[in-house]
Amino acid sequence: MPLSNRPVKCAACRQPINDVISAFVSAGQCVHKLCPGPNRLLAAKRRHRHEPIKRATVFERDGWKCGICRKKIDKRLQHPHPMSAVVDHVVPIKLGGPNTYVNVQAAHWKCNATKSWTGHGDQLALIG
């Protein structure tokens, strides 16, 4: 079977990802209700706390202001717009940060992507 015709499976729960939900798939993750997700699995493996994070709660708490550039986030913009709202982990889970409300902030997609590509910026220096 050609590689392009093989069913894609969720990296976390190993369930097949179908075309209906493919619009919500990012980097092999799925939106199955029972899927623990890669962040939760990684947190459990490293014995870190994991809270279910509601995006709207984070955005309202932060006043729709980017925690990285400190500029306002336009609520009307949606992904894939570079200035759309995303939830950013201040200390990335990969580096031992917990998936909790204390460790997340509202951010522009572009700011978060730039932070990820540049080694997480100055924010980690503030923690240590």
The amount of beta strand, in percent, is 5-15%
Counted by DSSP, the helix tally is 4
Q: How are the strands of the biggest sheet laid out side by side? A: 1-2
Shape: globular
Q: Overall mean pLDDT score?
A: 74
Per CATH, the class of the largest domain reads Alpha Beta
Given the helix and strand composition, which structural class is it? alpha+beta
Radius of gyration, in Å, reads 16 Å
CATH architecture label of the largest domain: 3-Layer(aba) Sandwich
CATH topology title of the largest domain: His-Me finger endonuclease fold
CA distance, first residue to last residue: 51 Å
Largest sheet, strands/sense/barrel:
2 strands, antiparallel
Number of E-type strands: 4
Number of domains: 2
Low-confidence stretches: 19-29
Order of helices and strands: EEHHEEHH
Helical content (DSSP H or I, runs of 4+): 10-25%
Describe the structure.
It is a single chain. This protein is an alpha+beta fold. It has two domains: 1-35, no CATH class; 50-127, 3-Layer(aba) Sandwich (His-Me finger endonuclease fold). Helices cover 23% and strands 11% of the residues. The protein has four helices and four strands; from the N terminus they run ββααββαα. A hairpin with a 6-residue loop joins strand 1 (8-9) and strand 2. The model is unreliable at 19-29 (pLDDT under 50). Pfam families: HNH (PF01844). This is HNH nuclease domain-containing protein. One of its GO terms (molecular function) is endonuclease activity.
